[in-house]
Amino acid sequence: MGENLPPLPGDSDIAPGTPLIISYRGTLAESDWTTEEVVKCWLQEQQGLDELSDAFVLNQVSERVLTDTNVFTEDFVVQKLGMENASKIKIKKLVMAAKRLTGIRQDYQVGMEFDSNDSYSIEWDVKPKLIPGMERALTYMIVTGLDHVSVRCRSDYAYGAEGYRKRTGEVLVPPYASMLFEIDLVDGPNR
User: Fold this and answer.
1) How many other C-beta atoms can be found within 10 angstroms of the C-beta atom of residue 116?
2) Same domain, yes or no: 86 and 154
3) Radius of gyration of the chain from its Cα atoms, rounded to whole angstroms
4) Which residues form the domain of 82?
5) DSSP secondary structure, 106-126, as one string
6) What is the pLDDT of residues 129-170, one digit of tens each?
């Protein structure tokens, strides 16, 4: 998130109660986490395994390594990540979590639309009810006077490890999904 948005200029506060109307389209985006992103977006979500952060960085465990079932094996975890003294259950847990991520990446196609709205009304609040990536994009648009942005959000700026489901249980956004938002500011400050 943010690699395609420059830093916000100066004062980026938006007055609480500011009414906005936006048009947006959200689709699943391609994900290719760096080693640091694997640690931040995925490893820290794995209970009891975040002590492996340094080993992941040392061994350059990027998303490509993590989701390659021929590379990220129990032997890799023991030999490369230094888990030779860990319980078999802990080792299996880590490998199975990586396999689940691999399955998620294969089951949900990049470009799949999960949400859109041509006239979404928002009353800006101190903490708007938006995912962090969309909040940052809207703040950027308002502060800079842009009418349109296309912003890619990593999972930690979106729905994270849980993803997003309908009340029926149907998965709209899978866990750890990156997203692409096309956002137009239809009405708001300076419009």
Assistant:
1) 13
2) no
3) 19
4) 35-107
5) HHS-TT-EEEEEEEEEEE--S
6) 789 899 889 888 888 889 999 999 999 999 999 999 999 999
